[in-house]
Specification:
The protein has a domain at 21-75: Translation Initiation Factor IF3. The termini are far apart. The protein contains two helices and four strands. Strand 3 and strand 4 (73-79) form a beta hairpin. The chain is globular and about 30 Å long. It has helices at residues 22-32, 49-60; strands at residues 11-15, 39-44, 63-70, 73-79. It is of the alpha+beta class and 84 residues long.
Length: 84
């Protein structure tokens, strides 16, 4: 991630408490309703999220801008790509 990267989001999704594969499935559904280039801020607590979300983004053609661990969970900033 570039230090000057804009970390604003167009939509937020709280997937805290959901287990694999639900955070990725909920992110997919949210991103499908967004326009290309819009950004989704996803929070999740599932320990598999740091593996699942980057994999989902790569497979679906979205850009993972940031992935951080905060408190008891994870925060991901995803930019909607042309993919599904």
């Amino acid at each position: 991630m570039d230090a000057n990267e804009n970390l604003t989001a167009d939509r937020t999704l709280d997937a805290t408490g959901l287990k694999c594969p639900l955070p990725a499935l909920k992110a997919r559904k949210a991103l499908l309703a967004m326009a290309e280039g819009q950004r989704l801020l996803l929070t999740a607590s599932d320990p598999m999220a740091p593996i699942d979300i980057p994999h989902f983004c790569a497979e679906a053609g979205h850009r993972l801008i940031a992935a951080t661990q905060q408190n008891d969970g994870f925060v991901f900033l995803i930019e909607r790509g042309k993919g599904r």
